[in-house]
């Protein structure tokens, strides 16, 4: 992990769940502040997330022109690029991920942020899971994110947005066809280890201007 002894910290411009998120001179965001905004639970400590292989791989991919994507600053905490803010938020929960999306949207548009945890949207709870595929808990996380994103749109756009998100998800993971018995597949056939990829895809899909082409994932 890269370290720096004498950092320059910018005034906070991003607020999530009433917690100001500091930035360093390169625009990276403080993970420790994000942890506080998420509730500060021990199981969500940045230290655990930083040790994940996915985090290590993303860290390398996101380094540009020798500028670290993750930097630990003595006495200030660990700072990460914007893309990793989203990944860390997804790792914590779908609800916190939504709060982060709302905060960034408010920052860009200049609107007052609505960064409180969103209420659980009404949908039928998942009861079953196929072996090795998305668990009921993960299915409900995805449903919540789809519903939340659609609910933020004008009513005449919501149905199209919901179809777009589910369609993109199934196209990306190749679950939009039929099995050998001719039965329709669907998102429940997506492997559970693709949980973060599912949430990431739904969260970043542009809405609602037309369908977005999503390439099928390599298997």
Summarize the main sheet: 4 strands, mixed
Number of strands: 6
- The class by helix and strand makeup works out as alpha+beta
Query: Ranges with pLDDT <50 over ≥5 residues?
Result: 119-123, 209-219
> What is the helix content?
40-55%
Average residue pLDDT = 80
Strand ordering within the main sheet: 1-5-6-4
Radius of gyration: 18 Å
Give me the strand/helix succession: EEEEHHHEEHHHHH
Q: Which shape, going by the Cα principal axes?
A: globular
Helix tally equals: 8
Percent strand: 5-15%
Amino- and carboxy-terminal Cα gap = 31 Å
Protein name: KilA-N domain-containing protein
Pfam families: KilA-N (PF04383)
Describe this protein's structure.
The chain is α+β, with helices and mostly antiparallel strands. Among the domains are: 14-92, no CATH class; 136-204, no CATH class. It has eight helices and six strands, in the order E-E-E-E-H-H-H-E-E-H-H-H-H-H. The protein has helices at residues 31-37, 46-50, 53-62, 82-92, 94-109, 136-151, 155-173, 195-204, and strands spanning 2-4, 9-16, 19-24, 29-30, 70-73, 77-80. The chain has a four-stranded mixed β-sheet. Strands 2-3 form a two-stranded antiparallel sheet. The longest helix is centred in the C-terminal third of the chain and has 19 residues, at 155-173. It is globular, with a radius of gyration of 18 Å. It starts with a strand and ends in a 15-residue tail after the last helix. Residues 119-123 and 209-219 have low confidence and may be disordered. It holds the Pfam family KilA-N. Residues 8-107 form the KilA-N domain. InterPro entries: KilA/APSES_HTH, KilA_N.
